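Translate sequence into structure tokens.
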Amino acid sequence: MNTRNKIATLLVVAAAAVGAAFAYAWEPAIAALPAPPPPSGDQALLVRGSHVASTGDCMVCHTAANGKPFAGGLPLNTPFGTIYSTNITPDAETGIGSWSLEAFARAMRAGVSRDGHLLYPAFPYPHFTRMSDEDIGALYAYLMARTPVHAPARANQLTFPLGFRPLVAGWNLLFLQKGPLPAPGTAQSDEWLRGRYLVEGAAHCAACHTPMNLLGAEKSSQPFAGNLIDGWEAPPLNALAGAPRPWTKEQLVSYLRTGLASEHGAAAGPMLPVTQHLADVPESDVRAIATYIMGLQPAAQADPAKATASTSVAATAVPAGQRVDAGAALFNGSCAGCHGGAAPMRTIGDRPALGLSTAVNADSARNAINLVLGGNPWGGSASAHYMPPFADVLSDEQIAEVLRYVRASATQRPAWPDLQNEVAKVRKEKEALPK
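Result follows.
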């Protein structure tokens, strides 16, 4: 084939691809219901729907700060700008009250709104497409049984030209794989299969715990290898065996249901509300999730440098050049009351020692910095999670000194580099977040 014919062929293929993308970009509207459907009287169906909603963390993403549940308006920060979640209460004008089950299922599985416009993949329909008809129907019934809230959508703030929704069609052609999960390559237990269905579907764990490519899609070659979400490190789910004390299934079940693992730490940041909602789903489902995640672990043993972490601050000698007297003094004045080796608070709720903390042992200081800056909110009876914020108490330099001291005295991990600048960077990011 000569050069002219090759160019002609490429142009034809490109034109066909563009045509296919634009054809895919325009979906027909599904007729609006004349009125919201009456709430279902099937209590078992509604309970199942509430479990699906809790597994999927629906309320967290669709509820603004100080807003009404499921009424939308929460800013979702992406590399491409800010997307505001939408109202999924049964309000006919601003919510989904005019949506039929058919329209709802199409949105869940294909990312298409009732009127035909494409939804941004910040809504994790690439995972929800795995969900069964029964679960989608139960979730629809549960949402339609809620009290309608009139809450118009907030305008997204996206980098030009990403506000042009038909561009999402090209993203879908590249990355959306519709339909249920394929059969596993080997025989697996019913619990593992249930866990896989939940993790890969409604729970959409990979959406936070898998690195993203430049187009905002999960890197299929690095599943569950960790990611950056809302300024926090979502740790790799396939490296739990490498913790100072390797995770067990029972530890993971406890963490997912209570937000606390006695040998690893407390849930914080975006993961805290996930655990709060998983507390509302059947324990059997959480156990299935834990079974599947533990099945992701390689056979390798824990890193010896991590496995010998001390169980209290200052229990081991600090390597030369790492300990800073200012950090020790600040720790004793601000932190030792809860985190010192003899602190009475250590006995409340099985608080883990700092030497076992996932954040303190992490390769990145980001989560430890976030915890010192913002603390962990009070959870009523869940007092073991609480940590006060120090953003207005300690300077960037002081936070860096404290963390440098804790890292050196509680672990045998290498010092975090450029710590003061990293603290300043994280503080600036938190202050710039849209409200």
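Note: The two ends are 58 Å apart (CA to CA).
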